[in-house]
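Progress note, sequence design subtask.
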């Protein structure tokens, strides 16, 4: 079987230019996949543009290679709490586009499992250790809104990959924007694109269970965070 590589990004928040720059590092040949962990909208300049780019990727590569999960900001749009193109930078509102994208958002899954990795936006109920049969209605809040982020060991080698909370906040260091790995079971990848202007990319060699960060500096292993 051909080696499978998973690329993972999260919390794009309307930053279309940064998203396109990050995509240049992604190789979707063979069995490789891209997993997006939610929060594609709000705060940045072009939420509509980000959603259209994601949908273009799905059309080009298929939903089995472009895995798109729901974030809490997508849920807010579905509930009608706030329009999609809502930020400090844009007052654009297109009723037809809002309907189109919200209908698409309604079908986004809450999590994805590949190998020993659980991908989600915010987190999951780790008290039910060993029980990975999630119930959408029971666990939805945690998948989308879990806070504070959990650290430590979970479920015999399973890794949880999430976004939602800035890695600077988890690291208690306002200058830290890289991927945060707790050395046990948790990878957090939201480096705050609005401040850092770079989307973190987590690359996973599924067969070898190796984890790397990719950016303009190159590709390098993700080591446990040290203060």
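Output:
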């Amino acid at each position: 079987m051909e080696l499978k590589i998973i690329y993972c990004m999260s919390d794009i928040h309307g930053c279309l230019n940064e998203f396109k720059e990050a995509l240049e590092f992604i190789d979707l040949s063979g069995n490789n996949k891209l997993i997006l962990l939610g929060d594609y909208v709000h705060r940045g300049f072009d939420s509509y543009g980000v959603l259209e780019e994601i949908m273009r990727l799905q059309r080009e590569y298929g939903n089995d290679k472009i895995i798109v999960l729901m974030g809490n900001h997508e849920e807010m749009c579905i509930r009608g709490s706030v329009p999609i193109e809502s930020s400090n930078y844009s007052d654009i509102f297109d009723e037809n586009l809002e309907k189109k994208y919200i209908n698409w958002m309604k079908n986004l899954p809450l999590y994805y499992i590949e190998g020993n990795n659980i991908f989600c936006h915010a987190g999951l109920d780790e008290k039910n250790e060993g029980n990975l049969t999630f119930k959408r209605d029971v666990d939805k809040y945690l998948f989308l809104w879990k806070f504070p982020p959990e650290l430590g060991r979970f479920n015999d080698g399973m890794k949880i990959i999430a976004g939602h909370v800035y890695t600077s906040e988890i690291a208690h260091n306002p200058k830290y924007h890289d991927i945060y790995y707790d050395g046990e079971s948790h990878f957090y990848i939201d480096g705050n694109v609005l401040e850092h202007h770079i989307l973190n990319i987590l690359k996973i060699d599924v067969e070898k269970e190796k984890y790397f960060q990719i950016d303009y500096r190159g590709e390098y292993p993700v080591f446990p965070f040290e203060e």
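The CA atoms of residues 122 and 164 lie 5 Å apart. Work on this subtask will continue into the next period as scheduled.
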